Amino acid sequence: MTDLKSVGVIGGGAWGTALAQACVRAGLTVTLQAREPEVVESINARHENEAFLPGVKLDTSVRATADFADLAGLDFILAVPPAQHMRSTLTAFAPHARAGLPVVLCSKGVERGSLKLMADVLAETIPDARAAVLSGPSFAADVSRGLPTAVTLACPDRALGEALVQAVAGPAFRPYWADDLVGAEVGGAIKNVLAIACGMSEGRGLGRSAHAALITRGFAEMTRLGVALGGRAETVAGLCGLGDLVLTCSSPQSRNMSVGLALGQGLTLYQALEGKRSVAEGVDSAPAVRQLAARLGVETPICEAVAAILAGEIAVDEAIDGLLNRPLKAER
Questions:
Q1: Entry pTM
Q2: Catalytic residue among 5, 108, 116, 191
Q3: Is 191 labeled as catalytic in the residue annotation?
Q4: pLDDT at 149
């Protein structure tokens, strides 16, 4: 495998910008594609993404563009649009993607309607691409500032996976290779839904014991669904599953937990999302996860409760009562 020297980052939100900064620290030549003209102008003129990652000075070598053609010929791609826009974004980029291009999927979610993971979306939009998934406990603010972070980089082709690990690893950014795309994706998608549940618990003042129970029982749901989809339990127990779950469910800095916190405090979903430019992926993934679990016959009572609350089918307190009154049974 030849050395990977240049990368295109698709998506100019907080996470895409943070990854671009991490890639510069790793010694890569970086081109960041953003659809918002103001983001492109802000990064190129003032070396800051004022819209999505304000206050973080970016390396002057990060170049932003709105044109997918500027990514043609780069060694690999990090795809970081919101999960529900992954299909349209990859479709737009496809004419500029050469056969065999490595595409690392960095968005976490289940596509509504199709109920597909991002690797499936990539296979349908750029069939000749070589897929990888980057997922793990990583806040954009931490990564952009160079704080220590460890993630999973999953790729079924070990040689390519190890080359990607070497390419993006930096002084404080530590990727671990795995070969299980499904396990890596499921962890990242479902933890967003569970973070909304933990935020609601926090907003209702249910205490740390309830919070710990939600994380633990939510992890069981994540594992069951991951295995049912063909992933491995040990992958879900790693950074991309359990690690990401612990981080996202433990800090209001998480967009998904902050939405749940607002709902638990009595705000409507519209009020919880009002004024936010960054996407809380769990809001869109929750109904897809509920439908996917039903299709596979997998019990996911916490995810189902979150989806029902977001859909306005039940109130937060009613959902809590429902979870507390489930039949008592063995833990495993």
A1: 0.94
A2: 191
A3: yes
A4: 98
